[in-house]
């Protein structure tokens, strides 16, 4: 039996702004809407780039990741947030 390699180990990201609320739910959508989950690192990336208006280079340094990694994290988080807003889904933030 071959051992399967799952890629590079995950690097710990520095997160300073832990969310006060971990879930947002749409109003006016009857029933149980679908759910979108973003990681705390994605929340932090959006907070630094969009809320605090930092450059990607500054935000990447704050999180302790490369600029390329930061770009990927923030792009995925923005896509998830947009999906939740456009499609009236619950947005959940978790580790």
List keywords for this structure.
single chain, 95 residues, alpha+beta, Arc Repressor Mutant, subunit A, three-stranded mixed sheet, 3 helices
The percentage helix is 40-55%
The structure class reads alpha+beta
How would you describe the shape? globular
Terminal Cα separation, in Å? 32 Å
- CATH architecture level-2 label of the domain at 33-94: Orthogonal Bundle
Largest beta sheet, briefly? 3 strands, mixed
Task: Give, in order, the helices and strands.
Answer: EEHHHE
Query: Total number of helical segments?
Result: 3
CATH topology of the domain at 33-94: Arc Repressor Mutant, subunit A
Can you tell me the CATH class of the domain at 33-94? Mainly Alpha
Overall pLDDT confidence: 85
Report low-confidence residues grouped into runs of 5 or more: none
What order do the strands of the largest sheet run in, or round the barrel if closed? 1-3-2
| Percent range for β-strand residues | 5-15%
Number of strands: 3
Radius of gyration: 15 Å
Give the CATH superfamily of the domain at 33-94.
Winged helix-like DNA-binding domain superfamily/Winged helix DNA-binding domain
């Amino acid at each position: 039996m071959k051992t399967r390699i799952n890629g590079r180990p995950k690097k710990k990201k520095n997160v300073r702004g832990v969310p006060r609320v971990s879930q947002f739910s749409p109003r006016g959508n009857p029933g149980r809407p679908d759910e979108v989950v973003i990681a705390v690192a994605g929340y932090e990336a959006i907070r630094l780039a969009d809320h605090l208006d930092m450059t990607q280079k500054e935000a990447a340094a704050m999180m302790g990741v490369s600029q390329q990694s930061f770009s990927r994290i923030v792009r995925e988080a923005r896509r998830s947030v947009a999906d939740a807003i456009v499609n009236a889904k619950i947005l959940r933030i978790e580790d």
